[in-house]
Amino acid sequence: MGLNRAIKAEIMVEEEWFGLHDVKRRGTTDTEGTAEVKLEATGHKSRAMLPIYDKSIARVKTPK
Predict the structure, then answer these.
(1) pLDDT of 30-39, one tens digit each?
(2) Who's near 55: CB < 8 A, 6+ residues apart?
């Protein structure tokens, strides 16, 4: 079922619309591990693409 049909059938609302890059962005963000692990999982050849697709929040150690 296409997204337009899902909206017309009231299965989803327009605000829930997503595209292919949204799915790839979510997959990159949800992949645990180093940048190299994420690059391998997404198939990107260039590390420059990682900041575009990885929207995870950086984890830092709190000072003691």
Answers:
(1) 888 888 898 8
(2) 25, 28, 29
Would you call 13 helix, strand, or coil by DSSP?
coil
Tell whether pTM > 0.90.
Answer: no
Average pLDDT over residues 35-59: 83
What distance in Å separates the CA atoms of residue 1 and residue 10, rounded to the nearest whole number? 12
First to last CA, the chain: 53
Cα–Cα distance, 64 to 61 (Å, whole number): 9
Hunting for tokens 């990107």 — which residue is that? Answer: 44
Containing H/E element for 50?
Answer: helix 50-53
Mark 10-25 as b/e (b = at least 16 C-beta within 10 Å). Answer: eeeeeeeeeeeeeeeb
